[in-house]
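call fold target=Tautomerase
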Amino acid sequence: MPYVNIKVTDEGVTAEQKRQLVKGTTQLLADVLNKEPHTTFVLIEEVSTDNWGIGYQVVTELRKSAKQI
């Protein structure tokens, strides 16, 4: 019973994109590991950019810096 946790920043991931992630992840596990799709769990978590850090900065600040360039 595979469990996959996908974390993305909360920057407008659509319901359709999430559906595609669930479908694609489930299919990948079925193809590569021969796992049953009906027992494969995929959880998508949207994380605030204030709660996601890269290096010494949170993503919110990184995005602001990138827009100024």
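return ok
The chain has one domain: 3-68. The first strand starts at residue 3 and ends at 9.
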